[in-house]
Amino acid sequence: MGISFDKVDGATWLKFEVHPATNAVSEADRTAKLKDPGFGRVFTDHMAIVRYNQTDGWHGARIESRANFPLDPAAAVLHYAQEIFEGLKAYVREDGGVNLFRPDANAKRFRNSADRMAMAPLPEAVFIEAVEQLVRIDRAWIPSGEGSLYLRPFMVASEIFLGVKPSAEYIFAVIASPVGSYFKGGPAPVSIWVSENYTRAAIGGTGAVKCGGNYAASLRAQAEAISHGCDQVVFLDAVERRYIEELGGMNIFFVFEDGSLLTPPLGTILPGITRDSIIALAKDKGTQVREEPYTLDQWRADAASGKLKEAFACGTAAVISPIGQVRSASGDFTINSGAAGPVAMGLRKQLVDIQYGRAPDPHNWIRKVL
Ligand SMILES: Cc1ncc(COP(=O)(O)O)c(C=O)c1O
Is the dihedral of CA 287, 290, 295, 297 positive or negative? Predict the structure, then answer.
């Protein structure tokens, strides 16, 4: 690809220079913002930032005020979308400490995303250190109760050059956004629209990585879902247009009358960390979990026959959302009479209890930051 990212693994750990914000929000303003933060609109005082170039490798690691950073109008990311990101959360425990949930898995996925997008790989230890430092300095911004601090690591191609080639320079940064409980009063079942006009990912494409372009390409389908009165879109495979893949930003599970679970196999979908955790928790209980293709027609037939008991979507933001209604150009159907089912709700509670440190952590998923 005409560029080699050496000097990367030498920098397995970088010392972050900490420059506390001089323009930090007052305590009164922060308290007001934390009352009802919603999702992704309120931000903390700081950010982590690390830069990459061919001469110095990863360097200049800093924790500093969250602020605009200059990007030249010719920066590669603005033209060819060489960009990746992650999403994970920090949770306040009952003892006042702070947990991160599987940050090593996000760091690894970020590295895989960088590889697929021909970007400089960020050492996993640097990713985790950046996240931890940001959580520590912005501890006051983490909502208590069922809220959490959503962390958004991302990397953009910053080389000033209009040629289509891997950028030689990158900016890695982490920002943080306090979020309230995703569903007030418990998870309400969502309705989903099956996209038969648009696909999300093809074999050999970028579906399995978290690059911004995947999300830009999903927006039209999501708009179509909303125009049909649905909350979310679910995509079918790009080849046969029959197999269920995933939602715009969540993986999907099906629950059958014999208690077994099925979820689409990895390949073109994002390997969700929530998906992986649910598979592990279900298997711990002796539940059979199949990672197998499942068609829309079969889904409809199983919902009609009663063989399918529940379906749910899962991801970091909402943890688990039961699916109540499925709508498509070829007809609508209801699952579990449109109500949240016991398997989805049980798994959700189990996972959330681990995340908040209220339950034992048999897989060592929790990383205590404070
Ligand atoms: C397309 C897509 N699928 C699945 C997921 C769920 O992944 P995770 O459980 O790691 O949040 C996400 C969210 O990150 C996503 O954007």
Answer: negative
Asked whether 168 and 199 are in contact (CB, 8 A), the reply is no
Closest-CA residue to 180 (of 150, 153, 152, 151): 150
Whether the per-residue pLDDT at 183 is higher than 80: the answer is: no
- Tell the residue nearest (CA) to atom 13 of ligand 1: 249
In short, whether 270's Cβ falls inside 6 Å of ligand 1 is: yes
> Of the CATH numbers 3.40.50.1970, 3.30.460.10, 3.90.1310.10, 3.30.470.10, which one belongs to the domain with range 9-179?
3.30.470.10
pLDDT at 10 over 80: no
Evaluate if residue 5 carries a pLDDT over 90: no
Tell me if 123 CB under 6 Å of ligand 1: no
Per-residue pLDDT tens digits for 271-317: 999 999 999 999 999 999 999 999 999 999 999 999 999 999 999 99
Q: How far is CA 70 from its chain centroid?
A: 26
Give the span between the Cα atoms of 228 and 250, in whole angstroms: 19
Query: Does any ligand 1 atom lie closer than 6 A to the CB of residue 175?
Result: no
As given in the structure block, the two tokens for residue 294 are 């499942």
Q: What is the pLDDT of residue 14?
A: 85
Q: What pLDDT, on the 0 to 100 scale, is given for residue 264?
A: 98
**CATH number of the structural domain 190-355:** 3.20.10.10
Kindly list the domain boundaries of the chain, sorted by start residue. Answer: 9-179, 190-355
